[in-house]
Amino acid sequence: MPKMKTRSAAAKRFSKTGTGKIKRNHAFMNHMLEHKQKKTKRKLRKAALVDKSDVKRIKQLIAYK
Known about the structure:
Layout (H helix, E strand, L loop, with lengths): L7 H6 E3 L5 E3 L13 H8 L2 E2 L5 H7 L4
Antiparallel strand pairs: 1-2, 2-3
Keywords: Ribonucleoprotein, Ribosomal protein
Protein name: Large ribosomal subunit protein bL35
Family: Belongs to the bacterial ribosomal protein bL35 family.
């Protein structure tokens, strides 16, 4: 059976933590930032963990990362 390929689009968006969880960035931080509150923008800066319902699917996409 051939090796699985890492999806490069997913590899750019997700990364694994030391304990094997999957990190992601928040959405809504690209444009029209003058309309958003400072508090909102500050919270969106930090990374978040992927929900457990999506973990299995994303681990397949970034198999070797």
